[in-house]
Each structure stands twice: as structure tokens, then as C-alpha cells.
Please model this.
Amino acid sequence: MWFFARDPVRDFPFELIPEPPEGGLPGPWALHRGRKKATGSPVSIFVYDVKPGAEEQTQVAKAAFKRFKTLRHPNILAYIDGLETEKCLHVVTEAVTPLGIYLKARVEAGGLKELEISWGLHQIVKALSFLVNDCSLIHNNVCMAAVFVDRAGEWKLGGLDYMYSAQGNGGGPPRKGIPELEQSADMWRLGCLIWEVFNGPLPRAAALRNPGKIPKTLVPHYCELVGANPKVRPNPARFLQNCRAPGGFMSNRFVETNLFLEEIQIKEPAEKQKFFQELSKSLDAFPEDFCRHKVLPQLLTAFEFGNAGAVVLTPLFKVGKFLSAEEYQQKIIPVVVKMFSSTDRAMRIRLLQQMEQFIQYLDEPTVNTQIFPHVVHGFLDTNPAIREQTVKSMLLLAPKLNEANLNVELMKHFARLQAKDEQGPIRCNTTVCLGKIGSYLSASTRHRVLTSAFSRATRDPFAPSRVAGVLGFAATHNLYSMNDCAQKILPVLCGLTVDPEKSVRDQAFKAIRSFLSKLESVSEDPTQLEEVEKDVHAASSPGMGGAAASWAGWAVTGVSSLTSKLIRSHPTTAPTETNIPQRPTPEGVPAPAPTPVPATPTTSGHWETQEEDKDTAEDSSTADRWDDEDWGSLEQEAESVLAQQDDWSTGGQVSRASQVSNSDHKSSKSPESDWSSWEAEGSWEQGWQEPSSQEPPPDGTRLASEYNWGGPESSDKGDPFATLSARPSTQPRPDSWGEDNWEGLETDSRQVKAELARKKREERRREMEAKRAERKVAKGPMKLGARKLD
Model:
């Protein structure tokens, strides 16, 4: 019944895109662009409309339809689906473009490289070899119109309309007599195709005598193809062998890469590893479409199923540059997220090293739930290189971290690294990173952490860490109140003006002048206070770190190479002294002989110029001063220090210990003891210990210990700045990371730990009150650093 009839074209799972056909193909077919209805994926559809009185042409089209369905080869146009009705024939293939249109578009875009042509001709010749040698078929239609190019730039042989058997069985056009001559006809047409690829449309057969633009390495083999004697024309397989000989037209890295990719599934793991390691060097010379559509799928497959590991990362991210943002999200990001969960150290460190290439494609939920929980394990890794790369990766991850991960979890790891890590360069990098991401922290975390962390860095035995501490204060200058600048930061910086290392002293003097200039400007015009402190209590924002941008620019480049060099060549141990010598060794006191110091004209000359221009610079506005300051390069500073010390772990440490023993100011705390108190009490309350004098004060003099310093112990008159440093007990010390209950990273019961810390602090407060009462009646001063023994 008529109402049960269905239109096969309408039910066909593919549809034509309503636009004119692509070019005019010789023969009965018209090429249309199409798509799959279910997925929208692009395809090409060859359409033949049956016309009355064209029975012979219809038979040719039906024969071609049959050949498309039965012939399968990587270099022959891939058949996907077909439709045959009384009115039309539809052949659906992979999305392709006729070679003539493709070459014209490439010429307009800048031309086609010989590498691409060499591989394209290789594919066509290989398809002919398959037909002639394996299938005993004569193509009989090799020409420009019978070659198509897919989206990866791969050339495919089509135009199967006039194909017939070389053995004489079956239908098809009449044979010419001798099979060898039939084969040679295909090779002669191949020669014509080569001429047209390099020189354009062939005007007449006589033009074949002039090779024109055909490369010299290909000319001898081309001449064999178009020779007058058909019997000397080579077989397709021999033609390939001749062109692949050393120095031949098809002997190049691009062809070799394609051949390897075609057989990658049967290659040995060692061969795959070597191939992927060398692939990155060649990708820049390869066509973009080839990288996107052929290399990328193979890289993804190799990682997913081939256990290729970290070796695929470099070429993977290099190919990723050719993708759009949407393609990157679909193809690369899922693989990257999966890679972060890998336990392979090589994979982890390469991901961290190349994070800059894909961080912009990661959204915040993905970073906080799937990336950061795996990355933080690197802070605890025993390999210093992984710890270093993990610290530096925070520069890229910090803007995308949520409140808990950034202000709590990350700060705990930074505190541990800065206090306990045995590698001085990693402690230095931690300070650098903190200065760079300071503007992203919440206001409460900034107030609690920054001053304490940078103060601790200034007491690190590793000189570049002390430089980083000074630069950290400078980079985050807009995040401190005027009270903090005067009462917390300047006292720390003043102590560094007598540092044994000139590089530290230079940076300290420069920072002091800038902070004093800032304080002086507010003192002269108190109305500036609100503007100067506008960022102190503001919410976290990357825009607040204007000065940090120029200051910490070396954190990603200079420090990375420096740190790796220091870790390999100058291994250090965990710091044992938290207080650096307050002045150089006095005259007459023996000190270890220092290593000869090479001249450092760059540093000294730079700061002498700064001194000469001091008065003029201080008259400029505070904002302009800080934004324009060049805070130097830590790499240069550290290399200057390394030139003065042969070994940080032996001689340098002995020298420093000797200087500390001969110094008038001694420390009673070390980073390890600071960390222990942080872990036990929940916060870093064991800060600086004020030095004491051994001589009793004159009668009527108020002892410094009578002031409430807000710390566990007090200082005596021996400190010349003692009477200037008194401040209310409610203010935290510069190196305390806050009064919050900070739990240790390795404890299982955080609430119990916090309660024990609170009790210890309460006991310590009562002990201190008792000590103060005893000191009022004591006849002599009490030495600092004394502890009660139970």
C-alpha cells in the first residue's frame, strides 16, 4: 500500500549539506560535503543521479560502487556507507577534498612543502602497488581528479570507475592486450600526476620532456615513468624502493615518521620510547593538520593503551598548541587530569615543568578536586627536584585554588618546607613563591603569614634565602599597615644591615629606604594613610600584586636553573641556626679564612649608583617608587654568594658557626625547634629571643624585661634598641604565623592536638608571669634562653 512506502534517501543516516558540489569531477559522480545525522561528524558523499538513456554510464557508476565496498586499504578512499536506489547512487566516504582544490588553497596560503608532497606521492604509489601486485587490478584512471586529501593531509586514491582485472576475468573496459603494458599505463599516468603536482595542469604530452619544478632528487625516477618504452617503466614497488634510497626524494624524517605511525601497534616498547623522545624535535617542521589529526590521536592512544608514560608529554603539549580551546578541553585535558594521578615520578615532574602550557585550560573545580590533591604529595617527596617543581607550580595554581586549599593546606606545606627542608634552594624558592602569590591570600592569612614567613627567611643560613626574605617584604609592601611596617618589618630589615653577605646588606638598605620613604610620606600627609593601606584589608586579588610581578619574575626562570644547580652541586642540610650574625666578626677576633672572593662589580656598582641618587629618588611618590624599583635577580645574588663559599654543607656551615659563636648577639632557637613548637602548640609562638646583657643595669634603670614583649622571654639593657622596641603585648611577634590553632600535617587527631597546644600555651603564660615576678626581686639579670626543667 502506498502509505507504507518509505523514502530511502530520507531514512539514510547521512545527509547532504545544502551547497554546490566541490569542483567538477570527471566521470559520472558529483562530490558533496555531508554529515552524519546522529553525530554531525563530517563526511564526503559521492552522488550519481540515474538519467534515462545513460545505461552505460550507470553501469560504470555501479561498478565503482562495488569496488568502493570491497577494496580496503589505508591509501585508498575509505568507504563508510552507501545507498543504491532506482534514481540515485550515494557513496559515503571519509571527509576529503579533491587534490586540485587542496593544492590551489595551499598555494594561496604560502605553498606546499616538499615534505608533504613526498609523503602524498608515497601514499598514491603504495596504493597502486597494492592494486597491481596484491589485487592484480589495473586502476586505469590515475590523474589529479582521482586523488583526494583528508583533514590530516593524507593523500587517498579514488576514481575507481574504470578499474578492471589484469587477469582478464570479470567485466570492465576492454583490455589492451599485454598486462605489463596495462600496468605501465598506470605508471605513465603517475608520471603525469607528478608533473602536474609541481607545475600545474599539463597542457600537452610533449610538456613532460621538461621536468620544470620537479626536485632534482626525483627527476631520474620521474623520467623512468614517462619514458617512451613501456617495458622499462618500473613496478610501483620498485619505484618506491628507488625513491626511498638514501638521499632519495622520499628519504626524509616526515616519511619515516608516518611509516612508523602506521606500524606503531607492532613496534617494541623500546622503539616507541625512542620514537616519542625524538618526535618533539621534528614537529615544528611538520604540517599543522598532520600534527592535529594524525600525530595527536597516536599520542593519546599510546598513553591510554600503550603505557608510553611521561615520554609522550612533550610532543603532546607541543601538538596541543595547534588546537582550539574547545578541542583542547575535549582531547588534552582529560588525559592531563589522569596523568596527575600517576605514581610515576618522571610523569609527575614533567607535568609540573610543563604546567604553563595547559594551566589556562583548567577550570577551578578541576584544579581543586582533581589536580591539587595529587600535586601536594610532591611537597613530601624525597626527591628534591620534585619538591622544587611542586613549589614553583603553585605560582600557576594559586589563582585557581579555593579558600581552604590556598589559605590553609598550602600554607601548612610552605611553613614546613621553609622551616625543615634540608635544601637551602628549596627553602629559598618557597619564600619566592609566597611573595609572588601573596596577593591571592585572604586578608587574615596575609596578616598572619607574610611577616612571619619573610622574617624567618631573613634568619636562614642560606644567603639567597635571606635575600628572598628581603625581596618578599618589598614585593608585598602594599599589604602591610603602617604600624606593621614600623614595628615589625623595619626592625627585621635593620638587623640585616650587618649581615656577613654584602648582597643581603645591599637589598636590606634598599628596602629600608623605601619603607622609610613610605612612612615619611604618610607622616607628612596623614590623609594618605587610607590610600596607602587600601590593600591591607582588601579581599584577595591578583591586581594587588603589582610590585610582585616585577620582583618575582625570576621565580619561574632564574631560580629554577639555580636551584637545580645548587641541589646537585652544593647539597645543604636543614638549617641549624635561625638567627644570623648581627655584625661582622670584631677586629682582633680570629675567624676562619674565607675562600677568595671574585670581584662582583655588577652588584657593587649597581648599589653605588643607587646611593648617589638616593636623595632624588626619595622625593618621588611612594607608588611610583615601588612599581619602578628593580629588585634584582636572585640568580645573580646567589651565584655571587656561591663564588664566596665552596661548599654550603661543610665549609660554609663551619664558617657561619664560627661567626655566630663570635657574635655579640646569639640565637636560642632554630627552624627545627620553631617547627616543633608549631607542630606541638598549633602556632609558631617561639619567635625571636631578645639578647641579654651580662652586666647589671645602673640603679633606677628600668629593665627591658619589665616590658611586656608578647613573647616567652625578654631582653635586658644589652640590646641598644630595647627601649625603642617596646610595644603592647597584644601584638604578635614578627615571625609568628598567627595565633590560630595550626595543626601538624602528620597528626591524625587535630582537635586533640589543638587542645594540648592551648593547654601548653596557658602553662607557659603562667610560668612567664611567675618569672617576671621573680625578676623584680632578683639581684642580677637572668640570662636569656634559660628554660625550666621539669
